[in-house]
Design brief:
Layout (H helix, E strand, L loop, with lengths): L4 E2 L20 H14 L4 E3 L9 E5 L10 E13 L3 E7 L2 E10 L2 E7 L5 E7 H14 L10 H16 L8 E2 L8
Length: 185
Amino acid sequence: MKLSIVAYGDPVLKKVCTPIDENYPNLNELIANMWETMYNASGVGLAAPQVGLPIRLFVVDTGDNDDEPRYKKVFINAQILEETGEPWGFTEGCLSIPEIREEVFRKPNVLISYYDEDWQKHEEQVSGFAARVIQHEYDHIEGKLFTEKINLLRKQLIKSKLDKISKGEIRGDYKMKFPRQNKKR
């Protein structure tokens, strides 16, 4: 089932999310719905707060590309243990912030601890584009958005666009829920 993606301005996107356990209700169904929602929106990652749930869960699928192998995983109760390397810029977007893309600097390597969908614990070193996507989604479960990582001038320049998103005046190509508008799209 395709879920509504929560738009910029919704308080759930600013919450530090809570851990879950293997008894979380309908977890497998939620994960399946998150995959379907992410693919429908042409995303490479989706965090639970983006579908309105303040829990420590996100999914990542970098897809196939010529530069790096596909990286597809479910992350439950993830903790980034270390970020290393020289920060590099890359233009990022976010399904909760349609039509806005900005350059964000992130370190190229992460060491992350997490549980998968079978509740197996992992500690893994990830590099490159997959590391960037993990950091972006991890920020979501920490209540942070990529727009907080851009320079002050760029923040000022996109302020009116962000306000339009929260009012539902910008339409995504997928089902969204806007904080300052009661109807879903």
